[in-house]
Amino acid sequence: MATVTAAGTRRDRSTPAPTPPRPRRRLAPRAYYWFVWPAVIAFAAFHTLPVIIGIFFSFTNYAGYGAWDFVGIANYVNIFRDDRILQAYGFSFLFAIVATVLTNAFSLAIALGLNAKIRARNFWRGVYFVPYILAVLVVGYVFQFLFSNSLPKILSGIPLFADNILTNPDWAWTAIVVLAVWQACAFAIIIYLAGLQTIPADIYEAAAIDGATPARQFRSITFPLISAFFTINVVLSLKGFLQVFDPIIALTNGGPGTSTESVTLLIFRGGFTGGEFAYQTANAVFFFIVITIVSLLQFRVLQRREADF
User: Fold this and answer.
1) CA triplet 243, 246, 249: central angle to 5 degrees?
2) Which of 80, 93, 207, 252 has the fewest beta carbons closer than 10 A?
3) What band does 189 get if pLDDT is binned at 50, 70 and 90?
């Protein structure tokens, strides 16, 4: 005897009904935690917990050893009274601003050249990326030899370079800028190249037909379309240069005197070898707040400029 199914077809009762497909068994949600929790625990143990401990000790007079007492916000107040710390902040910001401007100017110019139709383009892209993979200290000692030995011999006729520029308290910081910019350009070039390759070639062809010069194409097409990449580079560059440490260690070690002593170098020296653990920890916390505020202001200003384009 036949029956009518819901779909309107006839089926014999003796024929067994087809079994519906079994739902695929999903992985239990708890299984995902086995992948997440190890990373969370490691991050908390080696990053979050030390930060909390550091903030705690910034309200004490702990020297890195022995007993300690709470001093409240005295360490933070003394930061604004310490001429050495204020000088270090001034040097760090001067260095960071100059290095950021030079890095982005050179990187954008080089990226435009590497994005053009030139011979061995991939080879030159690799060459310009090499400085990023080299150890800063090793390269720094090479630059130290150049500034202290080679340049005084080659440029002996120029008073500034006749002697070792690294011993000049007024100009030693420029040598650090040269090293830092030379290495930082490699990463910035990659970001600018990524942005330039997102621009369709048809736009340039249409602009050329309309009679737009290369300079006009850069102002009206290239820079507005890579403004987001410009924002990323500027923010990362300024943040990184404010925390400059390795180039200074390799070239001047903070000298002559304290003329090239950055905030990070001062925190390292005072906190680990100067018996100022709590004081420099407070300085580190304050420096973190300063960098955060500067980065947020950069994002706000530059993103408004992106909207104007």
Assistant:
1) 115
2) 80
3) very high
